[in-house]
Amino acid sequence: MRLSFPQLLARIGFSALAAIIGILFALPLIWFIFAPFNARAELGIAIPDPWTLQNFLTVFGNGFAMRGLLNSLIQSVGGVILVAAAATLAAYALSRSSIPGKSIVTYVLLLFSSVVSGTAAMVPIFLIVSSVGLMDTHIAVILVFAGGLLPTAMFILRDFIDGIPKTYEESAMVAGASPVQAFFDVALPVIRPGIVVVVVWAFVNIWGSFLIPFILLRSDDLMPSSVAIYSFYSEAGTPIVTLLAAYSLIYSLPVVALYLFVSWKFGFRFFGGIKA
Amino acid sequence: MASVEFQNVTKTFGTFNAVSDISFKVADGEFICLLGPSGCGKTTSLRMIAGLETPSSGKIMIGPDDVTHLHPKDRQISMVFQDYALYPHMNLADNIAYPLKVRGESVEKRHKRAKEVADVLKIGDLLNRLPSQISGGQQQRTSLARALVYPSRVYLFDEPLSNLDAKLRLEARGFLNHLQRDMGMTAVYVTHDQAEAMALATRIAVMDRGRIVQFAPPIEIYRRPATTFVANFVGNPPMNMIPVEGTIEGERLQLRAHGVLVRDLPISSGIKAALGKGAGLTLGVRPEHLSMGTINDVNMVSGKLFANENMGPEKLVTFERQDGGRVTARIFTDDAVETSENVAFTFDGAHATLFDAEGNRIPADGEMPL
Amino acid sequence: MTKKRNFSLLSHRAGAAFLAPAAALVGVFVLLPFFWVIFVSFTNRTLLGKTALSPDFVGLQNYFQLFDPATFFTRGQFGFSLILTTQFVLLSALVGQALLGLLLAWLMQTIPPALKRIVETAVIAAWILPEVVIGFAWFAFLDYDNGTLNMILRGLGLPAGDFLLQQPFWVIVIFNTWRGAAFSMMLFNSAFASIPPSYFQAADVAGASSWQKFRDIGLPLIRGHVVTDLILITMWTFNVFTPFILTNGGPSYRTELLSIYNYRIAFREFDFGKGAAVGVIIMLINLIFALIYLSFGRKKAKAVEE
C-alpha cells in the first residue's frame, strides 16, 4: 500500500510519540543496566568506571540476602503449587459439574475477592494467622497468598475450561474411561496452557510482594528478598547503592525470565484481572 | 452387536421438551439414521443412548440390558463425535489406542491393534503425528479408528461428516457404507443431511420437534412420505407441494388449483375419510416425475418460467404458477427448454402423493409395491 | 432400582470434593477476614498489652474517632488520608493510567512492529518488576544530587528539584501512572484487536483521518472495555500499598494513602481496633465499586445472550 504524504507524516509522528513515551517509561529502569556493574556508587545513569562484577560477588557472599532469595523461592513455589492445584480442581468443578448454586458461588467469590484486599484485611489476617499459631512461618505466607490469589485464578481457569469442548471427556467416557481417568488423561493435559498462565501470574505476584511477608514474618532467616533487600542499607539508613543495584537485578531475573517465556509461548496476551 | 430400544423416552431441559415420549427399536445389525432439522431432538436421543444425557422418563435398552441409568463407560458402545474430540496432546497411535489403555491392555498390544485399524483406514503412516498435523479427512478417519479399535455393541455417530468439504464427505460416506456391509454393525447415525441418511441407513427415523414422524426404510420415506414435513425434508430439490381444492364429482375426485383442474382420480376409502377433515388438500410431486408437456394434457401444471439451471446430467426448470407458488422439474433430456414465457409440465399420476388438510399422506387403494 | 440421577461429567460428590480445598482456603483467608475485621472494629484490641488478650467491646468508638470533626482534615488523620487517596485515584488511575493506556494502545495499532515491541517491553517492565525494586529505582531516579531526572533537567538548563520533599504527592501520582499504565494498555490493545480490520479499512476507503477513526469507530466499539478498565484500576489504585516503599507515607504524612494510614495505625501504633475500622471503610468503598462492576458485567452478559 502506498501512503500519501500526510499519512506518512502522521505515521512518523505517531512513531516519534510512541518512542518518547517508551523512553520515559524506560528512564527510571535503564539505571539497572549499568549500576550493578559499576565499582562506584552512582544514583544517576552512568557508564561504569571501572566495570566490575565485584558487587555481585559481595551480594553472593551476603548470607542474609541469599537466604532471602531462597525464602522468596520457597514462598512463591509453595503458594503457586497450592493456587494452581486448588484453582484447577475448583474451576473444573465449576465448569463441568452441575452442582446447584454454582453460579451464586461464583458471584459471591467474585464480590468478596475484590472487596477483601490485602490492604483492608491486614488486621484480621494478622489476627487469624497468630490465633492459629502460624505467625512467623513460611506456611502462613503461603496460605495467605493462596487464599488471596485463588478467586482470580479460579475465574481465569474457569473461563479457560468453559472454552474447551466437553466432547473430550465425553468421548473418553464413552470409550470406557472413568471420570477420574477422563480428568487426568484428557482434561488436565488440555487445560495445561491455562494452568501455565495461572502459575506465572501467581508466581510474579508472590515473588514481588512486600506487605504480607512484612506483616507476618519476624525472623530474619524467613524474610523473602522483598524484605531482605533492606539489609543493603547502612546503619544510618542510607542505601549501599552498588550492592542494592546488583541484588535488585538478581531478584528481578526470575520475573524477567517468566515474562520472556510467556511472551515467547503465548505472545504475552495477559487478560483482565491478571495482576491484582 | 446388540439391539437398541427406546421405551416411551422423554427428555426435558427445564420447560423445553427435547424428546417427547418416543419409542422405537433398532434391530441387531441395523444402521439407523436419525434425520431432522436442528433442535428436533435427534442429537439428544443419540446422547441418551451413549449415556451422556439421562432420560427424564422412559427406558433405554441395549440388547437385554436396561442401560437407562448406566454410566457411559459401562455401556460397551462406541461414538464418533462431530468435532472428532481428538486429544491434542496425544499422537494418533495413542488417540486410537486410548480405549484400550483404559481397558488395561499392554502398550505393545494396543499399539499393534491401533496399527491394524489405522491401516484399514489408510492412516497407518501417520501414527506418530499429532492431530493438529493432519488434514480434516484424516482427523475424521482417526476418530472413526478410535471407535472401531475395541469391540462394541452399538456404534453411535453424531454428524461425523458435517465438518468435511463436499468431496471428502462423499468419499467418507462411501467408506461408512462399505464398513456397514463388511461388519454388519448396529449403528445409530445422527444427521441433518437427507442424502447422507438415504445413502447409509437401513431405516430412517425422521424427527420433528421431539417426535419421530416416520420410521421406515429410505425408499419408503422417499416414495411415501408420511407427512408434508417428511416430503419437504427428504429429497433435493424437495417434493413440489401444490395446494389443491378437492371436490367429488360422481365417483371421481377432482383436484383444482386456483380453479384449474390438475388431477382427476377415482375415489378410494382413504380419500373419503381424508375429505372429512377438510377439502384443502396438498398434491405432492417429486421434480423427477415432471416432464415437459402441453397445455391440454391431464395431470398438468403450468406457469411462467422462473429459472433454468443446468446441472450437468440434468436440468432443473423452475416455474411460477398463477398463485405464485413455484414448481421445480428435473429434466434428463438434452432438449433445449423452451425459452418462451409459459411452460407446461405433466406428471406421472402413479407417483403423485396426496396429503390431507392436516398434512398426513392419504394412502391410495392397492398401492403398488415399493 | 438404580437411583435416578442426571448424568454429568462430574458427579455432585466429586464436584464438591474438587471445590473443597479452594473453598477452605478462600473461606479462611478471604471470607473469615471480612467478618473478623468488622468484629474487631468494634473493640479496643491492640497488638500488645492487656487489651491484646482481652479486648473490650467499645461500640462505635473507633468510628467516632476516625470521623471526629475536630481533627478530620488534619494531616495524619483519617479524613486527610481519605481525601488524599481520592485525589490519588482520580489523577493517577482515571486520568493517568487510563488515558496513557488508551493513547499507547492506539499508537500501537499504527507504529512499526519492532518499535511496538520495544515500547511495550518498557511499559510492561514497569508493571511486572517487584515493587521494592521499582521503589528503589525511583528513589535513585529522583535523587537531588545525582539522580537521572535532575541530571537531565540540569542538562536542559532547567531548575533541578528535590521532588520527594517538595512535591511528594505529584511524585506518587506520576509513579503510580507509570507503574500501572501497562494494564490499561494491554486491555485496550486486545479490545482494539477484537475489532475486525475491515471496519477501519472501510473508513480508510471513505477517507477518514486517524483521529476520526479513533473517535467514530475505535472508541465507541471498546466502550465496554473502557468501563471495565476504569472500575478495575480504580479499585486497585484505591488499595495500592506500593507508594509506601518510595515515600514511607511522608514527608509528614503528605503521601499517606488510606492503605498506608491503616498500616501505621495497626502496626506502628498497634491500635488494631481503629485499624480494623479503617479496613471496614476501605471494604465498604471496595464493595460499592465491586457491585457497580458486577452489575455492569451482568448487563453485558445479558446483552450478549440476547
TrEMBL record, chain A:
It comes from Devosia insulae DS-56. It holds the Pfam family BPD_transp_1. This is ABC transporter permease. It is found in: Cell membrane. It is a multi-pass membrane protein. Residues 69-262 form the ABC transmembrane type-1 domain. It comes from the Bacteria. Keywords: Cell membrane, Membrane, Transmembrane, Transmembrane helix, Transport.
TrEMBL record, chain B:
GO terms for biological process: carbohydrate transport. It is a peripheral membrane protein. Pfam families: ABC_tran, OB_MalK. One of its GO terms (molecular function) is ABC-type transporter activity. It is found in: Cell inner membrane. The keyword Ribosomal protein does not apply. SMART domains: AAA. Its main location: membrane. This is ABC transporter. It comes from Devosia insulae DS-56.
From TrEMBL, chain C:
One of its GO terms (cellular component) is plasma membrane. Keywords: Cell membrane, Membrane, Transmembrane, Transmembrane helix, Transport. InterPro entries: MetI-like, MetI-like_sf. It holds the Pfam family BPD_transp_1. One of its GO terms (biological process) is transmembrane transport. It is found in: Cell membrane. Residues 83-293 form the ABC transmembrane type-1 domain. The keyword Cell membrane applies. Coiled coil: none annotated. The chain crosses the membrane at residues 16-39, 78-106, 118-141, 226-246, 276-296. It is a multi-pass membrane protein. The keyword Mitochondrion does not apply. Belongs to the binding-protein-dependent transport system permease family. PANTHER family: BLR7065 PROTEIN, SPERMIDINE_PUTRESCINE TRANSPORT SYSTEM PERMEASE PROTEIN. This is ABC transporter permease. It comes from Devosia insulae DS-56. The lineage of its organism: Bacteria, Pseudomonadati, Pseudomonadota, Alphaproteobacteria, Hyphomicrobiales.
